[in-house]
Amino acid sequence: MTRALPKVLAFDVFGTVVDWRGSVARESISFLAAIGRADVDPAQFADVWRMQYLRTMQDYAVSGRAFVPLDVLHREMLEAALRGIDVDPAVLDQELLTDWNRAWHRLDPWPDAVAGLTRLKARFPIVTLSNGNVALMLAMARRGGLPWDAILGAEVTGFYKPDPRAYEATARILDVAPADLCLVAAHHSDLAAARACGLATAFVGRPLEYGGREAPDAAARQDWDWVAGDFGELAERLGC
C-alpha cells in the first residue's frame, strides 16, 4: 500500500453494511401472505424492488425531478413491484403498505459489521455516505447497533449517488479534501464514481448481496486503494 491513510471513512450502507436482500425477503413473507400472494418468491420480490432502486439512482440526476427522500422513492418502487405481480396497490390497506415500505428501516447488519465498524471507529471517524434518508438510517442504526459518528447522505447533500455532487458535498461538510475521505463500499460503480471525484476507495466484498449471483456492476471493477473480505480485514489493512 502506497496511498496515505484517509482522515475519514464514509460508508455505503445498503449491501455494504446491511443485508438488504435477506432482510427485505424475510419481511416480505408475511406481507405477501397478507395480500393473498404467498405464491410469490419473497427473495425475487426483493430483487425486483432493489433493481428499480438501482435504475432510479443512476438516472436521477438527469430526470429533472426535484429531490425527495428515499422513503418516498421506495414507496413508489414498492407499488410498481406490486403491479408487476398483478396486484393493484390502490386497493390494499395503505397502513400495511407503509409498514412494508419501512422494511428498509429494519435491515440486518452483516455478521461482521458492528464489530468491524467499532474497530475502525477507534482510529477513524466513521460516517454514512448513503442514499438513505436520515429517519431510515437512524432507525437502522438504532436497531442494528451501528456505531456511526454521523449520518450523512442524500438528504444532507441534496444529491443521490452516483451524482458527483453527492461525494463532493460530503467532503465539504466534513471539512476534508476529497483525497482524505475514503468511500467504503461493496459496489464497484459507487467506488468508481467516488474515485472520479478524487476520493480514496476501499472495496469490501459481499458475495451474498445478490444471493450469490454476480453483482450487476461487476464490469466497473478497478484496482481499488484497499480491498478486503469484511470489515475486520479492512481494519487490519488500515492498521486498526
Order of helices and strands: EEHHHHEHEHEHHEHEEH
Mean pLDDT: 95
**Sheet with most strands: strand arrangement:** 5-4-1-6-7-8
Q: Give the C-alpha Rg.
A: 18 Å
Count the beta strands. Answer: 8
Provide the CATH architecture of the largest domain.
3-Layer(aba) Sandwich
Shape: globular
Class of the largest domain in CATH?
Answer: Alpha Beta
Strand content: 5-15%
Question: What share of the residues lie within helices?
Answer: 40-55%
Helix-strand makeup class: alpha/beta
DSSP helical segment count: 10
**What would the CATH topology of the largest domain be?**
Rossmann fold
User: How would you sum up the major sheet?
Assistant: 6 strands, parallel
Domain count: 2
List segments where confidence is low: pLDDT < 50 over at least 5 consecutive residues.
none
> CATH-wise, what's the superfamily of the largest domain?
HAD superfamily/HAD-like
**N-C termini distance:** 15 Å
List keywords for this structure.
240 residues, alpha/beta, Rossmann fold, DNA polymerase, domain 1, two-stranded antiparallel sheet, hydrolase, (S)-2-haloacid dehalogenase activity, EC 3.8.1.2, (S)-2-haloacid dehalogenase
Write the layout of secondary structure elements.
Blueprint: E1 8-11, E2 18-19, H1 20-34, H2 42-63, H3 70-84, H4 94-101, E3 108-109, H5 113-121, E4 126-130, H6 134-144, E5 150-153, H7 154-157, H8 164-174, E6 181-185, H9 188-196, E7 200-204, E8 226-228, H10 231-237
Helix pairs in contact: 1-2, 2-3, 5-10
Task: Describe this entry's structure for a reader.
The structure is a single chain. The chain has 240 residues and is of the alpha/beta class. Helices cover 46% and strands 12% of the residues. It contains ten helices and eight strands. It has helices spanning 20-34, 42-63, 70-84, 94-101, 113-121, 134-144, 154-157, 164-174, 188-196, 231-237; strands at residues 8-11, 18-19, 108-109, 126-130, 150-153, 181-185, 200-204, 226-228. β6 (181-185), α9 and β7 form a beta-alpha-beta unit. α2 packs across α3 (70-84).
